[in-house]
Input
Amino acid sequence: MPAATAYRYCFGPWNLSEGQDPYGPPTRPPQTFGWKLQQLKEAGFDAMMFHDDDVVPDIDNKSEIQIIKEARETGKRLKDAGVVAEIVAPRLWFSPMTIDGAYTSNDKKCRQYAIDRSKRCIDIGKALNCNLIVLWLAREGSYIRESKNARKCLDYLVEAIDALLAHDKKARIAIEPKPNEPMDLAYIPTIGHALAVANLTSDPKRVGCLIESAHAILAGLDPADEIDFAMGFGKLWSIHLNDQNGLKFDQDKPFGSANLRVAFNQVRALERNGYGKKGEYVAFDVHPFRTTKVEHWMRHLVNSKRTFEILVEKARSFDEAKAQALIADRNYQDLDQYVLEHLMGV
Output
């Protein structure tokens, strides 16, 4: 029997958010990157994930030399703390140049801006000793379907990814799908779409995916099935575990907070597919509740990690022989009850 995976954990600076939402101001004061790095280490996390402007603030107004200088300085701080950079993602949804989309904008100049910024993101990753670049295609879609040609936009997406692959032969691209928000409807809503796009690129072996639990739920899918599907292709290179209460806005609840059984099945899928054995990290893309006090700021991350580890033990102690006997008898009623009692510790 193969050795059990020893998981390594990750979160990003944005996961210690200040509580601002579209309807209200922050409820907690901003903290420095150094403070966030210290919290990460003290809580037993191994890596940090980044947007490009988490590493280099005000990135669009800095020279290439300044960008690399600041990225290397951050890289040194990580190394000194014994922390690695797991992923870097270009933040392509804040700029005035991406109002109408980034890679799929109707304006050629805006499409080129998105590609150029993504290339700088790859350079930042290299300065952090990180070659995994995540593309959350936040504005690749439309508010008005007649405003864009979806077939042409597919070509734009492939052209952009090909440009990034050519920029650095060691870079790997992980596409993070989401069906909606901020767009009404997105072009890459599911893992199946992400892997199909990967197959159209110039080097499909270097294009994989990242699954976020809440994004799969927003698409009306079970995240465990998405995990199994992606790992069937050997393409799940990172994962963002969180939770979601139904088909509404992206909530980024603590892992297992809304549906413990759905969380359990995600862990089972990771376990049976050997996720983490090739160095992949378990990242928690969760946010504190807006009401959270400063002194409780880390609890959503600590609790998500604790829930995950408890569910790993639940997955490993699940009686597969008993389950298979019930499956063979087509006794799904008692299988259902066994799962419930196993989770309840009966």
